[in-house]
Design brief:
This protein is mainly alpha-helical and 281 residues long. It has a domain of 105 residues. Helix 6 runs antiparallel to helix 7. The longest helix is centred in the C-terminal third of the chain and has 62 residues. The protein starts with a helix and ends with a helix.
Length: 281
């Protein structure tokens, strides 16, 4: 736990130092030059986006470690007492920050369609279609799911409800699959299919882990679960690698054109559905 927290601190330090370097380069760059414009846009991303992405990356680890320390309850030394107090602070922040971010997103929903208005915190709603409030549930579910998983995984091993770990984690994964199929929150079919494939393989990993554990003593079943587990992990890696190749081949301009066409088709379809609903009424 200490090593992981130290690595998180080192990563945060690298981000802060890179922010300082970009700021110094921006100050030293010639005025009204292309370099100054580029560094200015890059520096604007550090205002919120880079630190928000860093927090989203470390969110599960921080929440999990703080929950484990709170459940541990050992305050025999002064260092453990400090660790417990820090865990309470981190866990409280893990609840307050997502609520605060979702409040900002909901409050600024009407201006989320404007590129300049959402530029400072675009990483929270990256590649999400902002035409409907239902699609903006995505970042809230991102934090809620990791918070729930961290709390469940911190349950003592002798707890009588230990099996609920698998049940709730699996249910949250299946609920997300249904949400992706029904709402399609991302801007293009390519992105929706990519996230859906990732979540499907992740659900297979959860099921295989449950079978591979002490759920059954049968060795052949455990062997089959192990095979499924390895295949699901490799398919998860393959999906990400394939998506990376597709993004490189398509390029930024072509991806923007595909997103623009997909948003237009979705808007036309939703308009037709609204008209049909009005006719039925």
């Amino acid at each position: 736990m200490g090593q992981s927290l130290f690595l998180i601190f080192c990563l945060a330090l690298v981000v802060v130092l890179s922010n300082i370097v970009v700021f110094l380069l921006y100050v030293c760059a010639p005025k009204k030059s292309r370099a100054e414009k580029y560094l200015g846009e890059l520096l604007a991303q550090y205002k919120f986006n880079v630190y928000l992405r860093l927090y989203m990356l470390c969110y599960f680890d921080l929440t999990f470690f703080s929950t484990m320390k709170i459940v541990d309850g050992d305050d025999s030394t002064q260092a453990r007492k400090v660790a417990t107090m820090s865990s309470y602070v981190i866990f409280t922040i893990s609840i307050v920050v997502p609520v605060f971010l979702m409040s900002i997103i909901c409050k600024r929903f009407e201006v989320m369609k404007i590129k300049q208005a959402k530029a400072s915190f675009n990483t929270v709603v990256l590649k999400i279609d902002k035409q409907s409030r239902w699609r903006l549930i995505q970042p809230g579910y991102f934090f809620f799911r990791r918070l729930l998983t961290a709390v469940l995984l911190s349950m003592p091993i002798d707890n009588t409800f230990i099996f609920l770990q698998y049940v709730f984690v699996l249910m949250s994964s299946h609920a997300y699959v249904l949400y992706l199929v029904a709402i399609k929150p991302y801007q293009s079919p390519l992105l929706n299919n990519y996230v859906l494939s990732n979540e499907t393989f992740y659900s297979a990993v959860i099921i295989a882990i449950f079978i591979f554990s002490d759920a059954t003593p049968e060795l052949p079943i455990k062997f089959a679960a192990g095979v499924v587990l390895m295949m699901a992990i490799f398919m998860l890696m393959f999906a990400n690698f394939l998506m990376l190749i597709v993004l490189v081949v398509k390029g930024r301009d072509r991806l923007k054109d595909n997103i623009r066409e997909a948003k237009l088709k979705r808007a036309e379809k939703e308009l037709m559905e609204e008209e049909e609903e009005e006719e039925r009424r």
